[in-house]
Write a structure and sequence with these properties.
heterodimer, A: 284 residues, mainly alpha, MetI-like fold, 2 domains, 69% helix, 0% strand, B: alpha+beta, Rossmann fold, OB fold (Dihydrolipoamide Acetyltransferase, E2P), 6-stranded antiparallel barrel, 9 helices, 21 strands, 38% strand, globular
């Protein structure tokens, strides 16, 4: 009898219920996203009606209309440039820092690592005003350089933590073997070790891109017409004409989540390893 | 061009107060299989790391092919290296792993191909070249790691305990392969091991590493037959040699195995007698002692027999074919005598060899 319990049979009652339950809960969490996406394709007349309409003839008119607004495309361009730009720079810098911490172990490494993360202890809102003044002073307001530097700085601490965890899990024998065979330190870092911490790179990339892509406050304060991203665009665009423009919110919202959905879906298998912070290690 | 491949002299390395390498010196000749044998914790790993340039030395010189490389970087030393852990790059195929040192030295494609074929042939891994390290068994990984170490075209190779952790059969085969490889390449192998059996089956020249020093360096037979110190006798041989306290007066020592006439110049009274396991005879005679057999360990062709005299544990070996002795041992109590010429005399304080047994008194 005991062994049948562990064999998931299609018709066995408890397992079927468990599966149903899991699906139910998942769908519940997915509902807001489903609502946004379905709304994007609803004809204008059936968006805000009671009772809600579940079956309708999908239309692309909301999306084409939203895209036809002057600023929409530039919001997307801005978002992509500063998000990917800052995160790629952050990961590069973080990898170098994490490698140094992991391999050279400078005196007080643990404390330095703690110090690094401490920049994230204070709520970001506390920094808004000083940064606003700083950016004005340095004439960095509404510039890609300013925003990319700011977001990279914000992304680095966490990435260093993730990557150091992964690097600590990669035996130093790899580095040493390379050195003995005549490889340079750069070669070892990028050709020997980097490929082995791919899950860590992907994990920090995804975490940071989620943060930067969705960041609103600093983009709103430190950016401007030349650098406003989608979150700011959504905020300002949704109330155009007095009332909330649900068609606009839904259309832009749908396009807005797509890149992230694709990125996360593509990197799913790495992400799972990445979430363990490198604690699940392979044999050397 | 000296025929010395490697000459280490006065090598010292300490971590804080702990002296790991203590004025260590040895030489390794070209075309020789030198084995450095030391028990774990005697500085073996640090010695390898300093020779390879992975750890700076406090003082001393490391002369490779006549040039002092103690200050040179690891890559500049041009020493082939087989690390203790496999450290095969998981993202490379076996082929890419093996040719990695050659790629770094910017060898031509023809050279690469030739070298890889040569070492793959030697270590019988030709059929594995297309695989990834994760698809290999432990023994195969070790072969690939050795192949990668040997692929680098040089004449001095350091192998850091490469067979540790492998199963018995595989070790036998790899030991055989390594010997042949060294003979075919006509290069210098410096091989580190903590396993005395490995040292015995591989070495042409053996060095005994104990407490951060090379205490003895000579041909294998000489080191085995005439250990110059307790540490040397202890490090080589399996089962380990018996070390007994003894009292010296004139030219006679008194031990729990009776009195034995010795040849020595020493006049100190506190001495130590060392007897290899094969230095005993099973059977009753004028000099034998009745002992209790506590354990018989089957080693295949022979048995390691652990026995007790006066609460002192000793060990001897008895051939499997010696039916007469075995039947007596099985009874649990047996008469055993020591071969007087198998007794080596050491000074109790310095641990240095001071004499040799001659006959029973």
């Amino acid at each position: 009898m005991a062994e049948t319990i562990f064999k998931p049979k299609r018709k066995s009652g408890p397992i079927k219920f468990a599966t149903l339950g899991a699906w139910g809960i998942s769908i519940l969490f997915f509902l807001p996203v489903a609502w946004i996406i379905s709304t994007a394709f609803k004809p204008k007349g059936s968006i805000v009606v009671s009772p809600p309409v579940f079956f309708f003839k999908p239309t692309l008119s909301n999306i084409t209309e939203a895209l036809s607004f002057d600023n929409t495309l530039s919001y997307f361009t801005h978002s992509i440039v500063y998000s990917f730009g800052s995160v790629i720079i952050a990961i590069l810098v973080s990898y170098l820092a994490a490698y140094s911490f992991s391999r050279y172990k400078p005196a007080g490494t643990d404390f330095l690592m703690f110090l690094l993360l401490s920049t994230r202890f204070v709520p970001a809102a506390a920094f808004v005003v000083p940064y606003f003044q700083l950016f004005n002073l340095l004439k960095l307001k509404d510039s890609y350089i300013g925003l990319i530097a700011f977001y990279a700085m914000f992304s680095i601490p966490f990435s260093v933590w993730i990557l150091k965890g992964f690097l600590d899990g990669i035996s130093q024998r790899f580095d040493e073997t390379g050195l003995v065979y005549g490889a340079s330190r750069w070669h070892i870092m990028f050709k020997v070790i980097l490929p082995q911490v791919k899950p860590g790179l992907v994990a920090s990339f995804v975490f940071n891109i989620l943060f930067v892509w969705n960041e609103f406050l600093f983009n709103f304060q430190l950016g401007g017409a030349k650098t406003f991203g989608i979150p700011v665009g959504l905020f300002t665009g949704s109330t155009k004409g007095g009332a909330i423009d649900w068609a606009y919110v839904a259309s832009i919202g749908t396009l807005y989540v797509m890149p992230l959905v694709i990125v996360i879906y593509a990197f799913q298998k790495y992400l799972l390893v990445g979430l363990t912070f490198g604690t699940v290690r392979g044999e050397v | 061009m000296a025929d010395l491949a490697l000459k280490v002299s006065g090598l010292t390395k300490s971590y804080g107060n702990k002296v790991v390498l203590d004025d260590l010196s040895f030489t390794a000749s070209m075309n020789d299989f030198s084995v450095i044998c030391g028990k774990p914790g005697n500085g073996k790993s640090v010695l390898v790391r300093t020779i390879m340039g992975l750890e700076p030395v406090d003082s001393g010189s490391i002369i490779v092919r006549g040039q002092d490389v103690a200050k040179a970087s690891a890559g500049e030393r041009n020493i082939g290296y087989v690390p203790q852990s496999f450290a095969l790059y998981p993202h490379y195929s076996v082929l890419e792993n093996i040719e990695y040192p050659l790629v770094l030295s910017k060898a031509s494609d023809a050279t690469k191909k030739e070298s890889v074929e040569r070492v793959a042939e030697l270590l019988r891994i030709k059929d594995l070249l297309g695989k990834k390290p994760e698809q290999l068994s432990g023994g195969q990984k070790q072969r690939v790691a050795i192949a990668r170490g040997l692929a680098k075209a040089t004449d001095v190779y350091v192998l850091d305990d490469p067979l540790v952790g492998l199963d018995f059969k595989l070790r036998e085969r790899l030991i055989d392969d390594l010997r042949k490889t060294q003979e075919e390449l006509k290069v210098s192998f410096v091989y580190m091991t903590s396993d005395p059996l490995e040292a015995l089956s591989l070495a042409k020249t053996v060095m005994i590493l104990a407490q951060g020093k090379i205490v003895q360096q000579d041909s294998l037979d000489l080191v085995y037959d005439e250990p110059n110190s307790i540490a040397s006798m202890n490090s080589l041989g399996f089962p380990e040699a018996n070390i007994l306290p003894a009292e010296l007066s004139g030219t006679t020592i008194k031990t729990i195995l009776g009195s034995i006439k010795v040849k020595t110049d020493s006049s100190s009274s506190k001495v130590v007698a060392g007897i290899r396991p094969e230095g005993f005879v099973v059977g009753k005679d004028a000099n034998s002692f009745n002992c209790k057999v506590s354990l018989m360990e089957n080693l295949g062709s022979e048995f390691a027999v652990y026995f007790t005299i006066d609460n002192t544990d000793l060990v001897t070996v008895v051939s499997r074919t010696d039916a007469q002795a075995l039947s007596k041992l099985q009874a649990g109590s047996v008469d055993i005598s020591v071969k007087p010429d198998a007794v080596v005399l050491f000074d109790a304080n310095s641990g240095k060899r001071i004499g040799q047994g001659v006959s029973h008194v």
